[in-house]
Every structure is written in structure tokens, then in C-alpha cells.
Amino acid sequence: MIETTYLAILIGSLLVGVAVFTSIFSTRFGAPLLLVFLLLGLVAGEDGLGIRFDDARVAYFIGSIALAVILFESGFETRFSSFRVAALPALTLATVGVIITAVIVGAAARLVFGWSWISALLLGSIVASTDAAAVFFLLRVGGITLRDRVRSSLEVESGSNDPMAIFLTMALVGLATAAAGEGEAVLSLLRSFFLQIGLGTITGLIGGYVIVRIVNRVELEAALYPILLIALVLALFAATGMAQASGFLAVYVAGLVAGNMRMRQVLAVRRVLQGMSWLAQIAMFLTLGLLATPHEFGQVLLPAIAVAAVLIFIARPVAVWMSLIPFGFSRNETAFMAWVGLRGAVSILLAILPMVGGVAHGQAMFNVAFIVVLCSLVLQGWTIAPVARFLGLVVPARYGRVERIDLELPGRGDHEVVTYRVAPDSAVGRGRRIPRWARPALILRDGRSLRFEAAGPLQPGDQVYIVAATEHIRLLDQLFARPSGGTDSAVLFGDFAIDPDIRVADLAEAYGFEVGDGDGSEPVAAMMRRSLGGDLEEGDRVAVGPVDLIVRRLDDDDQIAEVGLALERRAPPRKLPLFQNWRDIVAYLKARKTRRAAAQAAAQAAALAAAVTGLARDDGTGDGGAEV
Q1: Strand order in the sheet with 404-407
Q2: What is the value of pTM for the model shown?
């Protein structure tokens, strides 16, 4: 018994350690890291190294705890500003989009496997949600900078669509095994939906506030605060689940609330949460990989690949397009969001429920879901960055990597202590003076502590400690940042800056182009906002005559504070013929109506001309006869 315990600990620790080291491989070769974790579990499993693990209930237990930690950390890292920007489209994707995806995939599963509608829709529900861990990792660590609205919508959707998929899966498992009549089962399903979503949201809001209050009021050792927080999160998850509500939705909402409130030891809590989230992802993917038996995949391989193709190329794009039509996303943005529909551990975790519940084809559903996840991570996970570049959605990073450490001040003031390491290629490293309000309180140079007055100009390698107002930290980041990828800033933000309040007519006169009637008196900033539809990001471009106008900087109210002018125009991104939004649809209908009216007018004119010609001929013939 003791030897078995030691062996299990040794194997588990080695698997986790190897999983951590595989991150080097993933970063170097661009492989989705979570795919590596999953494959590592398969290699170590029954058909690989021979580790036998077939307890589906234990796997679901481990996966549920891991997913609760991941969802809380996802909400904790989401700022309210990002949530406000993306709330409506993301929540529409997380509800309507999940249902549409489940229905389309379910129809494909019924056609391919010949299962009943309930079983087919159950498989559709299992693979209907995107994976928060995969999406967060690839968007935040993938090295691409996207428009804030697109990135925030994908992140909020991936964090909030799991409860809908979980609800649909549990409800359909209940229907598949229920003895009640169909009408009674549907009513029970509706009651369960409102209970899970409504009560889950309410308990999440209350729970997040209570968690912050408890953490702020108790006096503990600094190292105990993260432990207390995680214990409270899991208690909220369990209590909400026992109340027949969605514990997963509750912990995500609680994380969103807690992450946007002032909390004691928040920096230490954030670091521990990030580490726990990584550990949860590794544990969940390794466990699910060990649970799988690849030698059984051959029985469903080709139909499962067909289902994966329907999900990736039909169901997800249709669901995203139908969900986002009212929100004004461009065609390329909608196409990219349709492509970033990565499936992951949540789908495999949900596939355990039919096995545990004794649903017909339960083992086949698990194998199909596993294959679908592998196809999604390989195809979509490996191509996110190239697809973003192809669609022209990668916006320039305003500044590059910053070597910064946050230090916590006692109390709840509006100032922070930050420490920067001066990089040789940063603005400060090249001799740029820092503002008077940001003079360092301390400078570490060659192992010595120096006051700012005695240190002289800052030198590369210096570590500086600055006490600054929270709203000024972004400005300091720009001064101490490395160049963003070594790209010439003139290419990204224009050759020089112009006043955003200058009139369009004055700009046209200076560069020799014409403007439409009534447009000349409009300020450049107002014209750009109108052209961009009011959704502004730094780096956005508007072509005007022979030049490009670029949003160089936005103020705190998202108003254009600085405009760049590029003399060399950049080629516009490719415009897809699909995924029209409501503006495109309205414009098409208006153009069609105009063309139809023009065609009718032309036809009437031609008919009138023919009639006049005919009358003229008749008159000429009659006159001729009279003359004769």
C-alpha cells in the first residue's frame, strides 16, 4: 500500500513536471500548449506507457474543481471596461450561439451516426462551448494584438458560455434517462434553466462581494490570503451547485466582481491564482488524457472527423454570424471570431456525464468529443495568428514588453509603487527624460542604492522604484517599454501627428484632394469617428484622398487625442464576401432597391420612347397617305 502511494505520487509529479517543461516546446514551435498537455496524458495512458485510469467519476470530480478555479481566475483577470465593451455580443454568443451550435452539430450527428434526436443533440451540447483556458492562453500569450472589442468578446464568451453548455448537457442527460412524459420534461427543463442561470448569477454577484469583504476584514499572514480566497471560491461553487444552480457561472461572476474591487494582498492573490489556474489546466488535461483509450477511437474516427468539420466550418460560423449581426462587427472580425472557437477540456469533461448517467452511446460520445477536441486544437489552435494576419485584424502594439513589478502600498490609496528595469532600447534608455511627477524614489545600480538626485541620468540596467498615481502607470509603461517587435512606429502610427480638431477642408487644401459637399467644415476627429462607426482603437486607419489618417492616441473618455498622418497608404485588408452585419445588409437592400427603381425607370423610359416612336411612324404614314 505504501509503495503504491509513493509510486502514484512519483508518477503524478513527473507528469506535471514534464507538462510544465513542454511549455518550452509549445512556445518555440507554436503548438497550442493545452494540446501538448492532452497528448501527454494520452502517451502516459493505457495505450501508451500503460497507466490504467478508468474511473470516470473521479475524472469528473477533478475536472469540475479545476474548471471552477480556471473560470474564477478568468473572471478575476477580466476588467469591467473590457466586459462593458463586449458584454452584449459575448453573452449573445454564450447563449444563442451555444444553442445554434448544438442544434447544427446535433443534426450532423444524427445524420452520421443515426442516433435519436436526444442523443444527437446531447453530443452537440457537449461540444458547443469554447474552452476558456485555450482561448485565454492563445489570445494573451500568442503574440498577436487584436482590437479590444474582438479580443474582449472572445475572452468573455469563452468564460461565460460553459454554464449554458453544462446546463444543456445535464438537461439532455436527464431527458435521455427520464421516465416522465415529454411535456412534463420540457417544463422541468425550462424551470431548471431559469433556476441555474438566474440563481447562479445572483449567487455569483453576492459571493464575489462577500469574498472581498472577508479577505479585507480578516488579519492573516500574507501567504494565507490566497489559500483563503481559493477555499471561499470552492465553497461558493459547491453551495451553488447544491442549490441546483450553476456553480460554474457563479464562480465566473464572483471572479469578475472580486477582480474589479479593491482587495488586500491583491498582487500576491493574483500571482497564486495564475499559478493555480495553470496547475488546474495541467491536472484536468492530464486526467482526461489518461481516461481516454485511443485504441477505441478507430470505431468512430471518420464520423467524428466529419462532425468536427461540421462544427468548425459550418456550425460555429453560422452561430457566430447569426449572433453578431446586430452588433456591427465587420465581416473579417466575424470571420475571425468564428475561427477562434477552440474546443478543449470542458467538452471532454461534459462527455463524461453520459457515461456516468448510463445514456445510450455514452462511450461513443466520449470518444467522438475527444477526437473533435483534438481536431479543433490542431487546426484552429495552430492557425489563429496566421488567420488574424490574413484578415488584417492584427493591430500594432503601441509599445512592447515592459519589465515591471508592482508593489503593494498599505491602505487603499490611488497610488502604486512600481519598479522598472531600464532597457537599452527603451525611450528612457535612449536618454528620454522622465516627467517631474515620476521621479524615482530609489535607484538600484550595480548593487548600490542611490537617490535620484545623486544618480544622474538613468542608465541601461538600472532598476528604478517610482511612486505614481494609478492613472499614470500607462504613461510610464510607454517610457520604459521596449520597441514593439522592432517595427518602425512611423509605419504603424504615421509620419507625423496633426491636430485632431483641424478641419477636413484645410487638410484637403494642404494635400490637394477634394471632399464631398458639407464635409469640409467637419473636424478630422469627428470625420474619423463617423467613418469608423464610433468604435475606435489606437492604430485604426481612415483613407482620405492620397493619405491615411491614423488614431494615434485615445484619451480616458475614448476620444481621439492625437491623429497620425501617413503619406504612404497601406493596402486595405481583404474583404470577405460572407458574414455581413446589419449595416451591410441594410446597404445591400437599399442598393438593390435603388437598382430596381433605376431598372423600372429605364424600362418605363424605353417603353415611352417606343410608344412615341410608334406614334410618330403612324402619324407619318397617315400624312403620307393623305398627301398621295
Answers
A1: 404-407, 415-421, 463-469, 442-445, 448-450
A2: 0.78
